[in-house]
């Protein structure tokens, strides 16, 4: 195992995918394979289709993430219509809304598995919501592939082999921010706003751990609940600390409130560091670009607003096919772009599976070997192995300047390799 400090509402979209190999099916219900893959699960697969499901907050306090499955929808429609599907099978992608409420995640996930009979869940979004169903999905031996969230738990240990994350972990992100702060402000005092769950706690713990023994000190912490109407009281308390750095470890709604509150306070001007899950234009634009200048975040995907990627073949394909198949989607929204990249990651992972079965997908997602994804930053590939459930472990710092993010410094690899 790589070295680690710690182990809107979218309708169900029928985008239709024949996988060769594994000898087909050997029972009347078509639930198991034969041949070299005999007995392995093929629920959700036919000779010409593949049924996938996803659970996202299409409504509620985290509904900004509803843009993400639009990118998936566009990718699968492109593959279905122009490539004959994934290996000959056309994908039917069913979306469910959990409103970012774990009990609803459980309900909708069970519906996908037990009623819709999906092959795999691609994906669930959020730490508390995804954690609410990972025991269930692992007990049912249903792949929970590429969880949309960076909780450290998705890559630690071997107790949940059917679950894997996708993006760099929050632990990795905290390390990247810690390195940046210690380089830029080696004696900084730090104030932290964080969501009171594993998402926020992961980031805070990683940053604190990575700055231990340095001159950087966390002197103020405030948490919030996703049911809170506002974080203005927390920001007033943090401002009283007069810290040099503000860590904004919040999901989009609350991240935007924090950016706005910081901009209104003329007496406090900290270095504002924003978690990458809230760094899209849909968060920044309502606050006003003039109010978010020099805000810092991390990134692992290409920014569709960055002119250096204008002629990039992967970016051009993404923009063209998004406009063709989901014309109402915004190509400059980072969540939409991430959705496209996640869908391509699934495509390549399934293609790499020796057995086109649930077991084959499980094994393939844990043996990724330098898989290139068009919209990831150069130098970042998908890599997993025995004891390593983190597909990506590198990120880069960027600063907001003018009307877009600008990359700064070099790629930071936190894998310890």
Notes on the structure:
The protein is an alpha/beta fold. It is 34% helix and 19% strand. The protein contains eleven helices and 14 strands. The strands form five sheets. Strands 7-6-8-9 form a four-stranded parallel β-sheet, with helices on both faces. β8, α7 and β9 form a beta-alpha-beta unit. It is globular, with a radius of gyration of 21 Å. The termini are close together.
- Major sheet size, sense and barrel closure: 4 strands, parallel
Task: Summarize model confidence as the mean pLDDT.
Answer: 91
The level of helicity is 25-40%
The unreliable regions are 1-29
Number of DSSP strand runs:
14
Which class of secondary structure composition applies to the elements? alpha/beta
Structure annotation, total helices: 11
Cα radius of gyration in angstroms: 21 Å
Termini distance? 10 Å
Order of helices and strands: EHEHEHEEHEHEHEHEHEHHHEEEE
How would you name the oligomeric state of the polypeptide chains in this document?
single chain
In spatial order, strands of the major sheet run 7-6-8-9
- The geometry reads as globular
Strand fraction = 15-25%
